[in-house]
Specification:
2 domains; 9 helices; about 400 residues; elongated
């Protein structure tokens, strides 16, 4: 009884896995030798049945019906060929779109979701498109087709009742063509299944990016890693001294310059500050400190600052793109930080060590220091409003 129950459970699990596998990646099961022998037997049996048919009652009607069956099978073949010929241009048209989308996602010019998630969805979509093209090509592969020929007419008119013999020959050719047409139908159904999954995957990709953009603040709050904890008095003293030093420098110097110098100091010159710019988003609301003029469009961008692979800060920059045109660029820096400008420190906020008793001083918050700075071009016009948050990575070993 126990063995029977275990076998039933394994069969249920295998069935579930098979169903899920077919849902994610459809495939055709290979025919067993017994099934192939059955197909050959059925063909020979049907040929024998057709040869034994007696059309003596109405040979002309039998010939008309045989023609109708042959035309129906030929129409079924043409229909599958037409669908395959339609799928192939569709697949060919999708390839440049996929390449453009891959480039845009990889360079963070489109999509708000993380690149790993976009590629995780884009990979199966590309595989589905390729498989749809593969099955469409298999459908169009030239195969054997049986059609009435000179020999059939010679046999038909070599006997007393040609219409009966010709009807049998037409039925025989139709039966021999049926397996090939069935294979073509199977190929086009497989191509359809893969195109459907490609469409659904692309739709899911768009939905994920839209949802990620709308829920990004909540996602960042959920996924934000807890700050490091200071476990010894020595670590606490070193952290306080580092924060004091950074705060003093941030009062007069742009945050990225301060963090770059600090990164090189802490790594003995082995590493420099690197930048990981996020997606540029357009915004109708421009901070008033930029003194926007009528008709100007604003934009915003997050830029992560890393030292030896560890995040040490995050810049949130608002700017007016048209004001950056024509300004000299600094190599190695992302826009809008790359444009040459003078920076004015507007404010400094210090969040650690805490001044109250509610927060544990041993736990470093997500933002230790925050600098707000305004960048101006050579004519004194404000071009970038940047708020830089300095994280715990700036006071811990890189």
């Amino acid at each position: 009884m126990i063995i029977a129950g275990a076998n039933a459970a394994w069969r249920w699990l295998a069935t579930r896995c098979f169903t899920i596998g077919q849902l994610l990646w459809p495939w055709l099961e290979k025919l067993t030798p017994e099934q192939e022998n059955t197909l050959e037997y059925n063909l020979k049996r049907d040929e024998a049945r057709i040869g034994a048919l007696d059309f003596g009652k109405d040979g002309d009607a039998a010939l008309e019906e045989a023609r109708r069956l042959a035309d129906s099978e030929a129409e079924r073949r043409r229909g599958t060929d037409q669908k395959a010929a339609t799928y192939l241009p569709l697949v060919a048209a999708l390839i440049p779109l996929v390449l453009t989308l891959v480039s845009a996602l990889w360079e963070k010019k489109a999509g708000s979701a993380p690149i790993w998630l976009n590629m995780l969805l884009l990979g199966p979509a590309v595989a589905y498109i390729a498989s749809a093209g593969h099955w469409a090509f298999r459908e169009l592969k030239v195969g054997v087709s049986h059609e009435p020929g000179l020999t059939d007419f010679e046999k038909a008119w070599g006997v007393p009742h040609p219409s009966q013999t010709l009807a049998r020959r037409l039925l025989l050719h139709t039966r021999r063509n049926r397996d090939g047409v069935n294979w073509k139908v199977t190929c086009i159904k497989m191509a359809h299944e893969y195109l459907l999954r490609a469409f659904l995957t692309f739709s899911l990709l768009l939905i994920v990016n839209i949802g990620w953009y709308l829920a990004r603040p909540l996602i960042q709050a959920w996924l934000s890693a807890p700050g490091p904890v200071l476990t010894t008095p020595r670590q606490a003293i070193a952290a306080v001294a580092q924060v004091d030093s950074l705060a003093a420098q941030l009062r007069t110097t742009e945050a990225r310059t301060v963090l770059d110098n600090d990164c090189q100091r802490r790594t003995d010159g082995r590493a420099a500050l690197t930048f990981a710019p996020g997606v540029v988003t357009t915004s109708a609301k421009i901070p008033s400190i930029l003194r926007p003029a009528k008709g100007e469009t604003g934009a915003a961008q997050d830029i992560r600052l890393d030292c030896a692979g560890k995040a040490v800060g995050l810049v949130r920059a608002w700017f007016i793109p048209m004001r950056l045109a024509g300004l000299k660029r600094s190599p190695g820096l992302p826009d809008p930080l790359a444009v040459s400008a003078t920076n004015t420190v507007v404010s400094i906020t210090r969040n650690w060590p805490p001044t109250g008793t509610k927060n544990d001083p041993a736990k470093l918050p997500a933002t230790l220091l925050q600098q707000a700075g305004l960048r101006r071009d050579g004519k004194g016009r404000p071009i970038v409003w940047a708020i830089t948050a300095v994280g715990p990575g700036a006071v811990t070993n890189p």
